[in-house]
Amino acid sequence: MCLAIPAKIEDIQEGVANCRIGNSETFIKVSLMLMDGEVQPGDYLIVHAGFAIRKLDEQEALETLQILRDMVEVQSGEKAGF
What we know:
The chain is of the alpha+beta class. It is 23% helix and 37% strand.
């Protein structure tokens, strides 16, 4: 199963966003080449396989991250690290 994950843009350089996953110190490089609209630091994206699929509003991103955290915690019995 493949999952797309919400990520928050920290900065953008040459069509690539440096994004943070949740509250972690994990950052990923995300290609913006598939995005139709403009994005800026502070925006949330839904990311799959290194590509931004679409922009999310903050509430949707935070709710989705919480669902993913809950899934990790139920499966592993440990607190999610993001």
